[in-house]
Fold these 2 entries.
Entry 1:
Amino acid sequence: NAGVTQTPKFRILKIGQSMTLQCTQDMNHNYMYWYRQDPGMGLKLIYYSVGAGITDKGEVPNGYNVSRSTTEDFPLRLELAAPSQTSVYFCASSDPGGRSKYEQYFGPGTRLTVT
Amino acid sequence: GEDVEQSLFLSVREGDSSVINCTYTDSSSTYLYWYKQEPGAGLQLLTYIFSNMDMKQDQRLTVLLNKKDKHLSLRIADTQTGDSAIYFCAEIQVSGNTPLVFGKGTRLSVIA
């Protein structure tokens, strides 16, 4: 299993540009999440999904959109990028029925800079 | 709502024990986790404990849970330079479908 993969690893955007951060997992997990991590800060939940076709807002959803058309993929869309969206973005997935219940498996992250 | 608090920094000498502390809010039915984040990487689960347990030991790691004070600690015995990382405490309540709530993380620096 590759686990959770994210692309791209790095990206620089100009203010006002748009982009999609890709996230794929091959563990057949129903739950998937997007977090952002600002320097020296913890994780803030942007959006999450409990299954294909179902998404919910997290703590900081403004400026982002998600979709979940398949179990494997959970892309995060940034429209009209702003400097405040400069951050490291992590995708994660989990299987509530698993051994450690709600353990989340994380991707390696996408480092985004908006200038 | 749920909240998880951690101290931000800890510095220890190689070979000493490290103790990272966390306080959480609520509940009678909670799962608690410790994640490790190495520089430039995502988070990896280190260990976890259910709220009906007081202690869990896994090699050099010992998790202690004080339910009365809602206090969780992670002890790393014989700390090595490879243990330098950010450690996140996280909580989830079983009763709902709410996602994990993470603390801000404790940056552990190990001095050789």
Entry 2:
Amino acid sequence: QKEVEQDPGPLSVPEGAIVSLNCTYSNSAFQYFMWYRQYSRKGPELLMYTYSSGNKEDGRFTAQVDKSSKYISLFIRDSQPSDSATYLCAMSAENAGNNRKLIWGLGTSLAVNP
Amino acid sequence: DTGVSQDPRHKITKRGQNVTFRCDPISEHNRLYWYRQTLGQGPEFLTYFQNEAQLEKSRLLSDRFSAERPKGSFSTLEIQRTEQGDSAMYLCASSPPSGWGDEQYFGPGTRLTVT
């Protein structure tokens, strides 16, 4: 079993839809949770960062962490064609020397259709 | 532009040749990471520096791979005697000192093709 599971999709939605992206994980030591957006042949771009449990909102994006269920979500409201990309979840634990090496999901490919 | 930069963006090399990649982190970021990503996969951790010290190296990294971060600023990743299986995107990320935040910011990556 992989430490982080993420449905690779693809996910196709109409413009304006609410998108829900999810990851599950098995390592209860994970404390730092991130969502990245990656366009084709580009580096990952940090969207949301959450420490421990709870919700965080930034514009059209909301990140949720449920540590009891080992489940994280990213919601995108009023989705736009420019949101079409691969969305990767990543998480880390506190390791020696403040190493926060990220453990990643496979990424979910999202297409927002005009 | 004050983001993470990587050079070159693309590298095509023949099997058996050595290659070296460079990463310039965001200034004041003392933590630096190298990851490798293949198509359809999430990035895989390769190695981690705090300032100039290499504190962790993945078991995925064979002896052909070496990384340095002299003076705790830019970093280089060298692959000796490249193999076709080394073809991937090599990503560098930097992070501020612990206590300032733990977010990792990525560069555009270096895409390596070994023929």
